[in-house]
Amino acid sequence: MNKFQLKGIGILAVVILGVLFTLPTFVKMPDVKWLPQKAVKLGLDLQGGMHLVLQVDTNKAIENRMNNTSAGLKDQLMKKRIPLAGIITEKGAIVINFRSADDRERAKALIKDEEPTLVQTDATANGFENLRLSMNPNDEQKFRDSVRAQAVETIRNRVDQFGVAEPSIVPEGKDRIALQLPGIDNPERAKQLIGKTAILEFKLVDEDHPLDAALAGDVPLGSEVAYEKDGGSPLLLKKQAVLSGEMLDNAKMTIGGSSPQPFVSLSFTKEGARRFEQITAENVGKRLAIVLDGKIHSAPVIKSAISGGKAVIEGTFTDTEASDLAIVLRAGALPAPVYFAEERTVGPSLGQDSIHKGLIAAVAGFLLITLFMVFYYRLSGLLAVLALSCNVFLVMGLLTLFKATLTMPGIGGIILTIGMAVDTNVIIYERIREEIRLGRTAKMAVDAGYQHALWTILDSNLTHLIACVVLFQFGTGPIKGFAVTLFIGIATSLFTALVMCKWIMMWFVNTKRIDKLSI
């Protein structure tokens, strides 16, 4: 078997694979191990789903950061014995009151070492020497951008674990995130999963102060009132968390044990396990509250030191609620609260109508091109139509293989590919005709025609490929789908025209030894 024959077998194998990967999209395949079973994935505009726009509360993230910074600075000032009359956080800034300018100057030097990026501003008001600490505009914008980027990543992790195929999650504007979730059949569950902040904290119950006084408004310094899940009983908790969800290694829904109800079992990282054992050893006999998004899920009494880094969140969960809670805990907490600024549900009937019209357009275009090519180029035109058919199968097969998503613009890209694929054959056939008019033999005309047309074809398709790359890089959602489909279409068009059609024509002039081409 010579090199030419091996090349033909390779071309045939590629075409067969393209057909095999395309067929599951249109017909039910036999349940055979080596046959592909997955159909091409459809986008939101074709199979229906949800379109959401989330507003990220970056102001709240800045407030939380300044609160944490404030608590840290207060501890440092007390350690250095620098007296302060008060410290509060307002409008994204920290305001510290001092009784003397000397105390303020000592504090400024300490803060310069601890938080060198904060802008310090002096003021005098109400008989106090005040020091205002704020973020400079550049640092503040970088922090807002990082908060949104972290929110995008956290939401992506949650959606991936939720099982949505090919979601589109992209930043939009300054503080928004646009989501497209194809195939969602339970929108409310998806919204709850995405919007849950999921801040997990372990806090000790404050049993040294009366709860009634705290409920009446006399909340002790360093404590806070929190309520059990679903509006349950209140408890007085230490405000400072002894352990947070950042030290969580895994979370999963579990059924069994002492209760038939499902619960969420937690396991901590190595450092988290060490810290959890230390906390439980130091607080035997006290209650440790498990708090999620400010709500108490349970507050068991610590009976002994707990080693191994294991804990559970119990409650009146359904299987779905426990599973979703495990998902958000594994994915991590959102860095800031998010709100649903926009919500649209796309029904599958609209998608079916789009697919139907897209198929009609593709078939109509294909038939018109077939009529023109056969009429104008005769048998060679029929060969171009065969290549065009193979091209469509290869595009669909590659979309399935790469798990790409087919959208309405993607169907437009396939239709555009059909037209562009014929352009390549037209250029080649016209060059072959020129060689025949010059008196070349069939074999010489085919060789020269492909050789002279090659660079023209590559140049024109290279500009199209560059456009596809730009669209994919800077486009979003459906625009990227169009770019991917068009990119694949250009690649398969070059293969069918420059490799497959050339091999078939060379097979005719070499094996059949024809003297005159039907072109």
Describe this structure in words.
The chain has helices at about 5-25, 45, 60-80, 100-115, 135-160, 185-195, 210-215, 270-280, 320-330, 350-400, 410-435, 440-475, 480-510; strands spanning about 40, 50-55, 85-90, 95-100, 120-125, 130-135, 170, 175-180, 200-205, 225-230, 235-240, 245, 250-255, 260-270, 290, 295-300, 310-315, 340-345, 405. Strand 5 (about 120-125) and strand 6 (about 130-135) form a beta hairpin. It is elongated and about 105 Å long. The model has no long low-confidence stretch (mean pLDDT about 85). It has 3 domains: about 5-45 and about 350-510, Multidrug efflux transporter AcrB transmembrane domain (Multidrug efflux transporter AcrB transmembrane fold, Up-down Bundle); about 60-140, Endonuclease I-creI; about 195-345, Gyrase A, domain 2, CATH 3.30.1360. By secondary structure, it is of the alpha+beta class.
Features:
six-stranded mixed β-sheet; Endonuclease I-creI; 13 helices; 519 residues; Multidrug efflux transporter AcrB transmembrane fold; four-stranded antiparallel β-sheet; alpha+beta; 3 domains
CATH architecture of the largest domain: Up-down Bundle
Helix content: 40-55%
Low-confidence stretches: none
What is the name of the CATH topology of the largest domain? Answer: Multidrug efflux transporter AcrB transmembrane fold
| Major sheet characteristics | 6 strands, mixed
**CA-atom Rg in angstroms:** 34 Å
Strand order of the largest sheet: 11-10-16-15-9-12
Q: What is the overall pLDDT average?
A: 85
Structural class: alpha+beta
N/C terminus separation: 30 Å
Strand content: 15-25%
Supply the CATH superfamily name of the largest domain: Multidrug efflux transporter AcrB transmembrane domain
Number of helices: 13
CATH class of the largest domain: Mainly Alpha
Query: How many β-strand runs?
Result: 19
Shape call: elongated
Q: Estimate nothing, just give the exact number of structural domains.
A: 3
